[in-house]
Amino acid sequence: MTDTGQRVLVVDDESSIRRYLRAALRAQGFDVHEAASGEDALNAVLRDRPDIIILDLGLPDIDGIEVTRRLREWSQTPIIILSVREAENDKIAALDAGADDYLTKPFGTGELMARMRVAMRRLAAKPDEPILQADNLKMDLSRRFVTVNEEEISLTPTEYDILRLLLQNAGKVLTHRQLLTQVWGTAYESEMHILRVNISNLRRKIEPDPARPHYIVTEPGVGYRLRM
Description:
Helices cover about 40% and strands about 20% of the residues. The chain is of the alpha/beta class. It contains eight helices and twelve strands.
């Protein structure tokens, strides 16, 4: 076991889930803190200052989506939702509230650890970094310059804005609504067709094989994620 020195807050009202996660996370060297309700979670974030939060939605007092919404008023700590709820509406609501990722129970420990690493890497990245990069895809924000495998790619202003948002949130799911409102404005938040067309055009320009996207991954019914 390697001591990572990183603190994880596990929020779940099921003691068996907390016990399982406690053992799995400690085996990876994490310092594990626990909460069994929404109020306990909010207090624990203030008290324990976790580096990442694993949050259930079905809490006995405050729904996990509301907990996420309240935390995002003052904290950017990565939040991974771990829930039995599989409905797209629940996933979208949690991500729109500010969650970084969403896993459904039952889950694989390896996948959870991978998602945690991505979420913490994203937070550690400098927000004012002029160069954004994922694998062989690179964006120079200061020059509005995009390359793939060192070859310049010509993008429309809209395609550039979509790609910039995805790169700035690499590894995190951005919902359709988040992308539409941030690129086109609130009046376009239900205009799914215009987003799909632009994503399709982007893939044709940056993907080695647009039919099997390497960079822009679709989260069915929810949104898109840029693979780090």
